[in-house]
TrEMBL record:
Pfam families for this protein: BD-FAE
Top-rank taxon, per record: Bacteria
Taxonomic classification: Bacteria, Pseudomonadati, Pseudomonadota, Alphaproteobacteria, Sphingomonadales
Name this polypeptide is given: Alpha/beta fold hydrolase
Keywords: Hydrolase
Source organism per UniProt: Tsuneonella suprasediminis
Spans traversing the lipid bilayer: none
GO MF terms held by the record: hydrolase activity
Sequence ranges assigned to domain BD-FAE-like in this UniProt record: 47-176
Length: 281
């Protein structure tokens, strides 16, 4: 059964203006996947009978504690809730509060088990689940759908069974795109997150690269703004297990406008996102 969290466990950091036009609704439930303070996800359910598609949302924040949490993705989760999409807005540890390698991966892996729980307890269509990641949240959105051997950050794991992934201004391969991502963060983010130096950095980045294992997805949609579109070889690596990969580039758009309901650029992009979430395209 669902387990309520303690007061104040929902996101409390900046919304980065994402709530300028849509205020976050109160979650229908706060589900715990771990005992630590950030081991929770906010569940929002649409009105009606269902069964509803489910978007599992991972916030960004350059994997550094204190920058971002679920607060700024809650308006988007609320907007999708109004459009008939159930949402699970996941918090997780980052560098500085127990996250990084392997802590963040442990959290993402544990949070993924909530998908089956939600599908069994609520009117959610288990066959229409999409992993959604903004900025640094792109990594769990792709990594969770990837199988790993014993050399991975949480040792061996099977890919989480989901239909699709949506990357919102995030990297497709953090090793190959580290320079661009660090520039977006305006500080060194990748190296502290990986938690190694020298050759071990390259080894760890290789383990989680789509060139090692492609995500097992039917469809991947990249919606880029500040970050460049993934290179052709990164797209080919992500598509290697049969995924249809599409890229929508939005030069000049801000990093947060594309996740701000009501912003003009978001309004242009929403139909494409909803088509993926609903499994209609």
């Amino acid at each position: 059964m669902t387990e309520p969290d303690s007061a104040g466990s929902a996101g409390t950091l900046s919304t980065y203006g994402a709530d300028a036009r849509v205020s976050a609704s109160v979650p229908d439930a706060i589900l715990r996947y771990s005992a630590h303070a950030r081991g929770f996800a906010e569940l929002r359910l649409p009105q009606g009978r269902g069964d509803f598609p489910l978007a599992v949302i991972f916030h960004g924040g350059c994997w550094k504690a204190g920058i971002a949490d679920t607060a700024y993705m809650a308006p988007l989760a609320t907007r999708w809730q109004a459009q008939g999409i159930a949402t699970l807005n996941v918090d997780y540890r980052e560098v500085g509060d127990g996250g990084g390698w392997p802590g963040s991966f442990e959290d993402w892996d544990s949070a993924a088990h909530l998908i089956d729980r939600v599908a069994s307890e609520y009117a959610v269509d288990r066959g229409r689940v999409t992993l959604v990641g903004h900025s640094a949240g792109a990594l769990p959105a792709l990594w969770l759908a990837t199988s790993q051997d014993s050399g991975g950050p949480v040792s061996a794991r099977t890919a989480t069974k989901v239909r699709a992934g949506i990357v919102l201004d995030g990297p497709g391969d953090i090793g190959r795109e580290a320079r661009d991502f660090d520039a977006l963060c305006e500080f060194s983010s990748v190296s502290p997150f990986v938690g190694a130096d020298g050759q071990e950095i390259d080894n760890r980045l290789a383990v989680i690269s789509p060139f090692r294992k492609a995500p097992q997805l039917e469809q991947v949609l990249f919606v880029q703004a500040k970050l460049p579109s993934p290179s052709a070889d990164v797209i080919a690596a992500i598509a290697a297990d049969g995924a249809q990969v599409d890229v929508l580039s939005n030069p000049g758009a801000s990093h947060f406008a594309i996740v701000t309901p009501g912003a003009p650029v978001y309004e242009r992009l929403e139909p494409a996102m909803l088509a993926v979430l609903r499994g209609t395209e």
